[in-house]
Amino acid sequence: MGTLLLHNPISMAKRPCPSQISPAAPPPLNQMDELLETFLSSSSSLSVDLSFDRLLESRASSDSDQAHLIDTAVALGSALLHAAKRSARKRASSHNSLYWPLPRELTINVFSMLDTQSLCYAAAACSMFNKYARDPPCYANIDLTTIVPKVNNAVVSTMIHRAGTSLQSLKLGIVPGPIVSPGSCQPLVYSIRNSVDVSKFSWNDKRSRQGKESSILTRSCLSPLVGDNGAPGTLLRRLHLYNIERMDNTSLCGALSACPSLLDLEIVGLHVELRQTLMSVSANCHLIERLFFESSKTGRDDSLKTPTCTDLVENCPHLTSLALRGFKLHDNKVRVLVKGFRKLRYVDFSTSYSITGGFLRNLGSSMGGNLLEVLILRDCMHLKEVEVARLLTAVIEGDYKCLKHLDISNKEGLASEGDWYDRCYKSSVIPIKQVLAERPDVCLLAEFPTEGSYIDIDQMADIVQESDVGLPSQLSSHISDASMFTSSSESSYNSDQGSGNEDGHDANYVMYEESSDEVEIDLNGGFYGAQAEVSLAS
Amino acid sequence: MSNTSENPKPSSSSAKMTLKTSDNELFEVEEAVAMKFCTVKQYFEDEKDSDVAARGSTTVIPLPNVHSAVLATLISYGKKLPQSNAVADNHEEEETKKKERKKYEQGLLKNLMPGELLDLISAANYLDFKEGLEFFNQALADHIQNKSVEYVRKFFGIKNDYEPHEEEKYREEYAWAFEGVDED
């Protein structure tokens, strides 16, 4: 019908009834080919434009004719456009496959080095890349961590399924800003405070909550690990979970039960109980080497029990790195852990409540202690100055011979012997300078409150010495003002959190004093040099 | 394009091999370096097995798939790698060498065009040059890390062949990924 229009505009004008045009059969193919060829080779966009306007005007008398002309032009124009674009895509595809110099395996190899987000970008570049990007090796290391909630269960599920048995590492959740590496000397309050802030942001902001329901990870986000007879989880080596609000104990433990090969587990800001999680690790992840656990409720999770510790030590003998941050930890239980893990090199109990440091007594010269390379006890509210002094003395004397990094910093100073509310950090008691002198191989971080911000160790020692008398008393007057604590954000210490150790603590002290050497816990009876065996009640 | 790639060092292994590129350039390479190209190594060993006594320096190994510019770069990279038969250096020397290598690597990558990088990877693959392949693969991955889709297309010289509805679906599915990336 269009051809009749183009070819015979005059005869068109003569035709009284436009409806007779539409049902006409399309002209035979070769005629159309010729027409199209003529049209495409001799027309410019401008001439088409002008010609169309003229045609339209020539039908000015009949409104329905005009309408029909326009409709036809739209239909045919679209058909032509569609055909041309389809061909353009085909040509693009074949260009890509001819031009791309790397064979499939190499391309996939390169893609497997990309982080997950960049992989999605590469896949969006063209269909050939998309095909390559679906290959399992590309999903060996899935990193779906984002700064604000964006990822939902479906995305996680798709990627885990694509990885199949190639899945080695899975990182999921909300991470505010660049990840603070646990071994760094940066204040770790960053990750706690910010994790609380960010999750508050997404849940209190109703507008964002409504709009982003589809972008939320729910408690079953890890269930793909368990599905298919647990195949994807079987070879998983690393699992890092950050601030997944809806994750609960059951789901997490379920996921862990599907990951027997897990070597590295990092859990930050999840609403899960320490004891249950450790029990699950104990039961399922016997190969684990690194455990990094940061509480979502600083100082309020008091669930750890001694049997849990002994089980963990027994079932996970390969642990070399242990971080339990923001929990209520008692010295006797922590001692079970630190002594029991025979390969333990890295320990981080920052922002823990209750521990006083007593667990470190006599630890540095025997199994469990003498392999320690890193010990971080930053901002432990109840860490006692006198225990720290003992520790440093042991270090000066050569214990902890593998120690490379020791962090006893505390933004409120250390707890005094009597009332933990009294803060102090006298250099006369804590031999910082001597440690620096006798053990130059040890990086010692002892940042205590002074005027100004971070001061390096040498200066610090000087200042502490100089203002020996002045600062501690200033500080205790600060502390007696309760508002000081409550005003400095959630991650600061709750003033009603007593050390909790007090009752059982004296009993422990008595036990330590009695045995002049180790206090050993009989686990497998294989410890050397056990002088006394005392069983500690939980 | 120079014919010889380097002057022989008296201390290193004296055996040399000649490699011929696709554009008929000849490269004289120390055996230690050439052996890192496993394809060459295989060829050489096959030659040895044959009855004719192969004198390494007179054997010319043809590499019809490798262009001279590419081979020059690969040889130069191969020389900078720690040699397997080198005397063990003490810690300080090792550190210095490492730093030098890092500097060299950075210089190498700085002015590399995407096409050249792809050529290097292809050639390293053909030559079965494991260290080179690993290095240049990583360099390629680093180049397109955190870059937008358009950048990736331009960088590789590939064309978008998605149908509109496909692309729409894709962007929706991976909406989480398509935010906050430098266009460069």
Features:
heterodimer; A: 538 residues; ten-stranded parallel beta sheet; two-stranded antiparallel ribbon; B: 184 residues
Q: Structural class of the helices, strands and pairings of chain A? A: alpha/beta
Mean pLDDT of chain B: 77
Biggest beta sheet attributes of chain B = 3 strands, mixed
Question: Helical percent range of chain A?
Answer: 40-55%
CA-based gyration radius of chain A:
35 Å
User: Residue share in helices of chain B?
Assistant: 40-55%
- Overall average residue pLDDT of chain A: 75
For the largest beta sheet of chain B, what order do the strands appear in spatially?
2-1-3
Structural topology:
The complex is a heterodimer of chains A (about 550) and B (about 180).
Chain A: H1 2-7, H2 9-14, H3 29-42, H4 45-58, H5 63-99, H6 104-111, H7 116-125, H8 127-132, E1 141-146, H9 153-163, E2 169-174, H10 189-204, H11 206-211, H12 223-234, E3 238-242, H13 249-257, E4 264-270, H14 274-284, E5 290-295, H15 306-315, E6 321-325, H16 331-340, E7 346-348, E8 374-376, H17 385-396, E9 405-407, E10 414-415, E11 423-424, H18 432-438, E12 443-445, H19 457-466, H20 470-480, H21 483-487, H22 502-514
Helix pairs in contact in A: 9-12, 12-13, 13-14, 14-15, 15-16, 17-18
Chain B: E1 16-20, E2 26-30, H1 31-34, H2 38-49, E3 60-62, H3 68-80, H4 91-110, H5 114-127, H6 130-144, H7 149-156, H8 164-173
Parallel strand pairs in B: 1-3
Antiparallel strand pairs in B: 1-2
Helix pairs in contact in B: 3-5, 5-6
Summarize the structure.
Chain A has 538 residues and is an alpha/beta fold. Chain A has helices at residues 2-7, 9-14, 29-42, 45-58, 63-99, 104-111, 116-125, 127-132, 153-163, 189-204, 206-211, 223-234, 249-257, 274-284, 306-315, 331-340, 385-396, 432-438, 457-466, 470-480, 483-487, 502-514; strands at residues 141-146, 169-174, 238-242, 264-270, 290-295, 321-325, 346-348, 374-376, 405-407, 414-415, 423-424, 443-445. Chain B has a three-stranded mixed sheet with strand order 2-1-3.
